[in-house]
Task: inverse folding
């Protein structure tokens, strides 16, 4: 009569490798389940933080919620809508620099409290915004977005 070999626990195969070595190898081997989103190709996003006057930050958040639009889409819509005027808007908004002979000091044109708006945006769209900021000589990404959002909200409230 043939003897039946004992059953192996799930996940363990009979092999000439010592059990301790095999278990250690299994314990250090990480597996990852691929989701359908990752299988289709993950979109590369980056964190974005904009420093805006508090009143504008609140107005943009309200507008985005009221119109069911994401914050990144609102920012991009504002830039697209004011694209032809960005050079002029930035020229008016850029700080003036004065020298006291030793230091160059910039004057902040918009006084008052500021708020941060943080969100994620596709990296390729963020690169376009940064290139545009350089092209129109904006002091910062926040400055470009601020003037575009101000213009956009002013024109959409008419």
Result:
């Amino acid at each position: 009569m043939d003897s039946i070999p004992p059953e192996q626990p799930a996940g363990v195969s009979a092999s000439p490798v010592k059990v301790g070595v095999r278990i250690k190898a299994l314990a250090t081997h990480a597996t990852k389940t691929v989701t359908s989103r990752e299988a289709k190709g993950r979109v590369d996003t980056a964190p974005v933080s904009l420093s805006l006057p508090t009143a504008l930050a609140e107005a943009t958040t309200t507008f985005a919620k009221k119109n069911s639009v994401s914050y990144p889409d609102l920012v991009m819509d504002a830039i697209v809508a004011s694209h032809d005027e960005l050079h002029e808007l930035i020229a008016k908004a850029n700080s003036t620099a004065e020298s006291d002979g030793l230091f160059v000091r910039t004057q902040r044109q918009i006084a008052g409290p500021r708020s941060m708006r943080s969100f994620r945006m596709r990296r390729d769209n963020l690169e376009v915004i940064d290139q545009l900021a350089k092209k129109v000589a904006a002091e910062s990404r926040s400055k470009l977005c601020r003037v575009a959002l101000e213009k956009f909200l002013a024109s959409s409230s008419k």
